[in-house]
Amino acid sequence: MNTLFEKFDQISKSPAAQLSAYKAQGKKAIGVLPYYAPEELVYAAGMVPFGMWGSNKKTISRAKEYCATFYCTIAQLAVEMLLDGTMDGLDGVITPTICDTLRPMSQNIRVSMSDKMPVIFLAHPQNRFDLNGLTFTVSQYTNIRKKLEEIAGKPITDDDIRAAIKVYNACHVQQRRFVKLAGEHPDVVTAVRRSAVLKAGWFMLKDEYCAMLKELNDKIEALPACDWPGTKVVVSGIIFDNPILLQIFDDYKIAIVADDVAHESRTFKTDIPDDADPMMALAKQFANRDHDVLLYDPQSSKNRRAEFVAQLVKDSGADGLVLFMQQFCDPEEMEYPYLKKELDAQGIPHIKLGIDQQMRDFGQARTALQAFADVLAVG
Ligand code: SF4
Question: Which residue of 13, 269, 334, 343 pairs with 348 in a disulfide if CB–CB is 3.0 to 4.6 A?
Answer without folding.
Answer: 343
